[in-house]
Amino acid sequence: MCPYCNHHQIVTGENSHAGSTKLHIGKSRQGETTLAYSAIRCVNLDCNEVALSASWEEALPRPNGWVNGKTIQSWRLRPSNTSKPQPEYIPAALREDYFEACAIRDTSPKASATLARRCLQGMIRDFCGITEARLIDEIKELKKRLNDGSAPRGVEPETVEAIDEVRGIGNIGAHMEKDINLIIDIDPGEAQAMIELIEMLFDEWYVARHKREARLARVKAIATEKKAVISTGRAQMAQDSAATTDDEASVVEG
């Protein structure tokens, strides 16, 4: 899937290139190493972007040269982060928090988790119409609405439980621990879990609602069009019937 346009495609020799170069710099702390790279061009002509990645890998000796071993470090060069394109009908503030959380996931996982937490809270306020002083209170209110059947379409109990679970991860960055000597770290994988929850909710809440509204609007438009055709047809039939009656009356009089 293209990271720029989300277009599914098959990667072939015509739109991809990969290779590696042995680094002749002597044996470092990591041993002999190579620099590997790959480039993939999107086949969607409306996009046609190029995704670039590189990795620093072990170089393992073989009789006829070297082969790549395990990856020491890797980089996404284009695009620079893992964020996915999001439709404009999702509020800009939510999209901005999501994109920034993705951008700093590896360099500052704790800040990324904090932004993800804010994005989740923003979704509850915007999509669910719940605003409280604290995120935990908003989650409690959302659970209450789920129980009494007044929660918005698309909100599921397991989703709310997941939001409640990851809330604690975001709290680590949003609120300092009372014991300042207690250091709680967040790794990129944990921040990524929150990012993936955001992506899932974007899809299950906003995208699903937009598609449903678009389908219903299409059905309504078709119904309105057919009603107009029927109304016009009936009016024409009434007009033709009246004309026929007038003609018959003229014949009788004549």
Write the layout of secondary structure elements.
Blueprint: E1 16-22, E2 33-41, E3 50-62, E4 65-78, H1 92-103, H2 109-127, H3 135-148, H4 157-174, H5 188-253
Antiparallel strand pairs: 1-2, 2-3, 3-4
Structural class by sheet pairing and helices: alpha+beta
Largest sheet: 4 strands, antiparallel
Helix content: 40-55%
Q: How many strands in all? A: 4
Number of domains: 2
Shape: flat
The mean pLDDT is 86
**How many helices does DSSP assign?**
5
Q: Give the strand content.
A: 15-25%
H/E element sequence: EEEEHHHHH
**Rg of Cα set:** 30 Å
N-to-C CA distance: 81 Å
**Segments where pLDDT lies below 50 for 5+ residues?**
173-183
Sheet with the most strands: spatial strand order: 1-2-3-4
Give structural notes.
- By secondary structure, the protein is α+β, with helices and mostly antiparallel strands.
- The chain has 2 domains: 1-78, no CATH class; 81-212.
- The protein contains 5 helices and 4 strands.
- The protein has helices at residues 92-103, 109-127, 135-148, 157-174, 188-253, and strands at 16-22, 33-41, 50-62, 65-78.
- A 4-stranded antiparallel sheet has the order 1-2-3-4, with no helix packed on it.
- Strand 3 (50-62) and strand 4 form a beta hairpin.
- Helix 1 packs antiparallel against helix 2 (109-127) and helix 2 (109-127) crosses helix 4 (157-174).
- It starts with 15 loop residues before the first strand and ends with a helix.
- 18% of the residues are buried.
